[in-house]
Design a protein that fits this description.
Low-confidence stretches: 300-304
Number of helices: 8
Largest sheet: 7 strands, mixed
Number of strands: 15
Mean pLDDT: 92
Radius of gyration: 21 Å
CATH class of the largest domain: Alpha Beta
Order of helices and strands: EHEHHEEEEEEHEHEEEEEHEHH
CATH topology of the largest domain: FAD/NAD(P)-binding domain
Shape: globular
Number of domains: 2
CATH architecture of the largest domain: 3-Layer(bba) Sandwich
Length: 324
Amino acid sequence: MQIEEAIIIGAGPCGLAAAIELEKIGLHPLVIEKRNIVHSISQYPTYMHFFSTPEKLEIGDIPFTTANDKPSRLEALNYYRTAAQRHRVRVQAYEAITSITPEDGAYILEGEDRFGQKRLYKSRYVVIATGYFDHPNELGIPGEQLDKVSHFFRESHPYVGMKVAIIGGSNSAIDAALELERVGAEVTVVYRGEDYSTSIKPWVKPGFQSKVNNGLINMLFQSKVVEIGYNSITVHGPEGVRQLPNDFVLALTGFHPDRNFLNATGVTMEEEGYPTFDQETMETNVPGIYLAGVVASRHEANEIFIESGRYHGRKIAEHIMSSK
């Protein structure tokens, strides 16, 4: 069994920021990540740019420089990788923590690497910074499990000339629709709202509306997909139920935390489905177990949350110091 002072589960921006803050108070945390460093960002659309300006994404007092107004996905990958290296954050990648069990005022964590090898750890403090992106909000409709359906959008090229339905009306849906239309896909956006979402980036909305008004993108308000077939989708909307020809479906309906893992750890859930924690200390209802990053978000999970989530580690460090 490997003994650690503190273990952070998840090597996203907020997990790395928490590791840097705990190091400042004399702890030497181990970050365990089931994939690669900042995996969620590596899964963003290939040519995506952040909403935030670079200084709002900085961690560890390392400047984030870019020649653009908003940094790109590639620049963010390089920045967070560099920040982790400069601060010598210990990251154990490609290992999943499968359980957390209390024992003698500490916690036993069971891990499993990508080859199925089991590992055990013991730590007084555990920070869960696992994010959302492995747990998309499912539609719960027939056909959702077909290969043509994805909850992620990476790039537009595979969809050239295809009939693509996008479910959702958030920024991710709007950005995907614009990229797909540029490469010649036939795009239909299916959104349950009565009008465009107020969260759409203001510099993007006019261009998108113009595409819709000119018939280049088909926008269906107050509508929902009720069934997905091999070559079609069934949509229920103001005009009733109708079938539309379809090749691919992008269900960009958001994500949620791993509730089963949190519940098994003893963390309770609020009525809205989010974990219980103290916003001032980030400690959950289980003493010594903390949340950091988007797993503690009560809003839509997106990159803006890095702006506030990067400070969670500081709250955790302050609480640990005050408790000693």
